[in-house]
Prior knowledge:
By secondary structure, the chain is α/β, with parallel strands linked by helices. It has helices at residues 2-9, 19-52, 102-108, 124-127, 161-178, 191-210, 245-253, 265-275, 278-281, 304-314, 385-394, 429-432, 442-450, 453-463, 482-512, 523-554, 579-598, 603-612, 647-653, and strands at 153-158, 181-188, 223-230, 234-236, 287-293, 318-322, 331-336, 350-355, 397-401, 476-478, 566-572, 617-623. The strands form three sheets. The chain has a seven-stranded mixed β-sheet with strand order 1-9-6-5-2-3-4. The chain has a three-stranded antiparallel β-sheet with strand order 10-11-12, covered by helices on one side. A two-stranded antiparallel ribbon has the order 7-8. Helix 10 links the parallel strand 5 and strand 6. The longest helix is centred in the first third of the chain and has 34 residues, at 19-52. The radius of gyration is 44 Å and the shape is flat.
Amino acid sequence: xxxxxxxxxxxxxxxxxxxxxxxxxxxxxxxxxxxxxxxxxxxxxxxxxxxxxxxxxxxxxxxxxxxxxxxxxxxxxxxxxxxxxxxxxxxxxxxxxxxxxxxxxxxxxxxxxxxxxxxxxxxxxxxxxxxxxxxxxxxxxxxxxxxxxxxxxxxxxxxxxxxxxxxxxxxxxxxxxxxxxxxxxxxxxxxxxxxxxxxxxxxxxxxxxxxxxxxxxxxxxxxxxxxxxxxxxxxxxxxxxxxxxxxxxxxxxxxxxxxxxxxxxxxxxxxxxxxxxxxxxxxxxxxxxxxxxxxxxxxxxxxxxxxxxxxxxxxxxxxxxxxxxxxxxxxxxxxxxxxxxxxxxxxxxxxxxxxxxxxxxxxxxxxxxxxxxxxxxxxxxxxxxxxxxxxxxxxxxxxxxxxxxxxxxxxxxxxxxxxxxxxxxxxxxxxxxxxxxxxxxxxxxxxxxxxxxxxxxxxxxxxxxxxxxxxxxxxxxxxxxxxxxxxxxxxxxxxxxxxxxxxxxxxxxxxxxxxxxxxxxxxxxxxxxxxxxxxxxxxxxxxxxxxxxxxxxxxxxxxxxxxxxxxxxxxxxxxxxxxxxxxxxxxxxxxxxxxxxxxxxxxxxxxxxxxxxxxxxxxxxxxxxxxxxxxxxxxxxxxxxxxxxxxxxxxxxxxxxxxxxxxxx
Length: 665
């Protein structure tokens, strides 16, 4: 109402306050003291925080002047274009430098090693106060020649233990190039190895000299040694590591003989690793190598995996100087010559049975006993499984030592050296590398075997006892009369009847695995299955043919020459007793010939070739023996029997010396 009156009566003063301005002024007048107090409080708080954050100013960094020597410019060279000659000949490739030929270069190299033999050392100028430990890799088995190569090699072959010691020199030298090294020498105390210990000790003197570890001017205190001995018990001969070569040699010479016949091989290797454990777990670290000498498998193979795991965890490679394992056999005969004058040395040589095999964890060889040469021990190309696997898993080498290892023909008893096994044939290590056993965990190997029908059938058949096809089958049948001849033929058939069920069962087992044969990729398993089935088929054919030939004779046969009185059964290349037997004979021959052709130069081919030389069939022949001619009584002979020695003569000879128990060698 007032506003309306003013508008009508007189104009409004533009400089006068309106209602909004008056309200704002009133608000400011009321809140000004509070705003001022808040402002003062915040300023004080900010100043306090600023004073707390003030620190001593950092010292001025020295100026760094980078002086760079200017690169001298080479004189410019005028590259005048030259005349280019283009050849029509294709360009040769294959240098290891180009990408395409890299694979070729690697395939030609004997070893493709993943660990450098030269350790990577940090530069002191770059490291400063920062501690960088060098790479802690296992020392790698270096290449000695074309047959001795990589870490975990298991087929290194030498003709003597001293030769293996020479090859170990390079392994020790490679380890010393990386860092100081402790070598634990582990010796089997058995009777059979005692003679070799002397030879090894003398050879080690030369090794230490070559390494500069014999306290001459080239003395290397970075090589220390421990000596461990084992038989029934394990003994630490040197109480602490020593770099005194004389002390090491004396310790080896002092190892006593243990004639208990018990060898705790894996317990000794574990104890050897444990004795040097501190050098792998405490600074400054040293390399540790275990080198074991033994000529048997050991009585504690159940400790093999534990020992391998322990050594691998500590980074300790294990080297074993051992013996070759006989192919598919656990035991082999050894030529023992008594060397101790305290025992009877009357016999020039004796043959003891010792355990040196087999070369695989599960049996892969079906043993067919036939009384001929294929039953003899031959080389497997590898060492006993447990020891070889230990070397493979820890990065060491298994050295197979045998004086006849270089022979490529049949080794006779006269050629076998003293304390060496009776192995008739040896094979080229280069060829055998393609047939290496499966050095994997037992569970993994079991899974692989059960996953293939042929492998499973082979192991099941090989686990069976040795086949005795026909023990000394009768081959000569004199005819006194028809009844007597029929009785002889019936008795002979009983021999075949006893062998037949066993052979048929093995044949059924192996035949059931045939569908898995073509899926096998490993040459070892291919050869093993084909050889097993071929040999079992051959045994079955011979047994069936023998039985049927006797049955045929019982039906009646007439001599072509009336003077003859005896039927003689002879081996024949032809099988003529029935189509089914002939079919099996053809299959057996094809399998055995396949083994010889595809696996030449291997134990499988050797056994198959020997099997093929024995005919599968039989044929009847006739001759005169005079069975019906009256025999004159034996008039006896006048041979003089030497008189026994008198008591005086016995006393002059002295008491007899005891004979060595060959079971405890």
